[in-house]
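Example record

One chain of 301 residues, shown exactly as stored in the release files.
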Amino acid sequence: MPRKFDHLGDVEAFIRVVEQGTVSAAAIALATTPSVLSRALTRLESRLGVQLLRRTTRRLSLTDAGRLYLEQTRLAFTQIEEAERTIRGQEGELSGRVRMSVPTTYGHHRLPPLLSAFARQYPAVQVELSITNRNVDLVAEGYDLAIRLGPLPDSGLVGRKLEDARLSLVASPEYLARTGIPETLDELREHVCLPFIMPSSGKIGPWLFCLDGENLDWVPQANVVVSDDVLGIVSLAQSGLGICQTYDFIIRERVLRGELVEILVQLSGRSRPFSIIYPPHRQLSAASRALIDFMLARTQS
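Predicted structure tokens for this chain:
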């Protein structure tokens, strides 16, 4: 009976070639020759019946199938390593460092209880957190993970959606007592709106509504606009300056305390996605994988 997994050496060669960037560099890392690795890649692609890598004389790039296979096989090898450590009695308490970048909205209002629970379960893991609205370069700046808002660009990064964050339209009781409560979109046009300037475009970010079952992106007109820190619009709205649209997880407690009032609920129903991303060519540490799995379990339950 043939061995079921006698091709694992070819799989390891594939992973190392991707990580090193070239067949020659991978051959040096594995103390073998480029021709041996090229034959391993050819055997693996023949076995799977798909092309995993696009090869030119100067560079390698993953196909869509190759990107998926890399993610899954990396995880399998990591699980094998962890199983061996457990059997050898070397697992002990999970430890290590995870460098993560998150936007201000998530970092101030969604992440704290998640990290608090994670720290209780894995007290020996050190999390180095950067809270910024700047999209860091994970590879160049040495980050393991990042949380990003919105649809992910085709950047070669691996992305796992954490959640779709519901949007709410809110104002302070004092503002609504002074101006009245808008009941329709036309009435909203007559109110003071507090929009945010999107750093990616330099333009006002549209407010997302659902009107009569149809999605509507509505650009508010305003004399006061906020840039850089999106949490500023919430502070201004709570102070009585006007109306803002923001994530429900930011204003939920303030609404319950009576500090803000949700309005035009009939236009709600839209959301924006938050995802956790990491470079596909970097093998995740056990600590990073634990944090990813923990956050996915807590946000998607």
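Notes: The chain has a mean pLDDT of 86.
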